[in-house]
Amino acid sequence: LHLISNYSERTVAAMGDAITKVSIIISKGSLEGVYPGLIMANGARAEGIEANLFFTFFGLDAIHKARHEHIKLATVGNPGLHFPTFAGGLPGVSSVMTRYMNHKMEELDIPSIPEFIEMIADTGAGLYACKASVDLFGLEKNDFIPQVQDIITVGEFYDIAAGGQIIFT
Amino acid sequence: MTIATFATTDVELNNEGFFVHPEQWTENMVPELAQAEGIEELTDAHWTVIRFMRSEYLAKGSGPTVRVLGKASGVPIKELYQLFPRGPAKIAAKIAGIPKPRGCI
Asked: Residue A73: CB partners within 8 Å, gap ≥ 6?
């Protein structure tokens, strides 16, 4: 028993600098703009780190009831895709590329955005919508999936984020 | 590396507290391992998860992530976090005497 308590003390000491809380802002409404924040939030919870997600501007689409199933890959102005911008702008190209990407992710057992967000809510992470953006787009609480806890101001966001790290995506 | 004693047996743990030699683990160490992780009362659901972690590791060579755990163990994700608030896959792996599961999702 003595050895066990020694071990616990050492673990706690070694974890003095560990991250214990994160607040992740998702501001973009493209597939590649939404996933990283979701992966970081889910990964934080898996490590036992407290996590809150704050959706702002076009990132609101990720929690919008009617839109979250239709988040698309940006095929224009996305040099990392190595796909010519003029071709990316043709009708239907974004849909086809998105379907391809979703298929690849399904093969790797990466959940779809709606499923992923539901899962993250189940891990106990908080989901919030940004009031300024909600007002700007003329939305209301009803437009969002039920897992969204509240529509909050930037000041309230900082209150919630207090004592943790803030990650902007 | 640390030596710890569970169920009167010395075992080797890495810096994060995971078993270095999973074969040193026995089921009768579980109550003490759980207690060291802040779990005072082991329920049947805890045991289901711990045994599932162990069997997945023995079958596949690595423990499942929370997502796989939620899909395959029969315990939903919400409940997994109630059972193991400090991270279901991570804490259950520690208690099951297996290495930390690796995986981003």
From this structure: A30, A31, A32, A81, A94, A97, A98, A101
State the Cα–Cα distance between residues B87 and A44, nearest whole angstrom: 9
Interface test with B, best of A3, A9, A118, A147 (most B CBs within 10 A): A3
* Encoded amino acid at B56, one letter: E
pTM for the model: 0.89
What's the angle, vertex CA B16, arms to CA A42 and CA B18, rounded to 5?
95
Cα distance between residue A55 and residue A126, in whole Å = 11
What's the mean pLDDT when you consider all of chain B? 94
| Assigned token pair, B58 | 């023995």
Interchain CB distance below 8 Å, B6 and A7: no
Structure tokens at B12: 């080797």
Q: Which of B95, B87, B78, B77 is nearest to A50 (CA)?
A: B87
Is-contact A96 A82, C-beta < 8 A? Answer: no
ipTM: 0.92
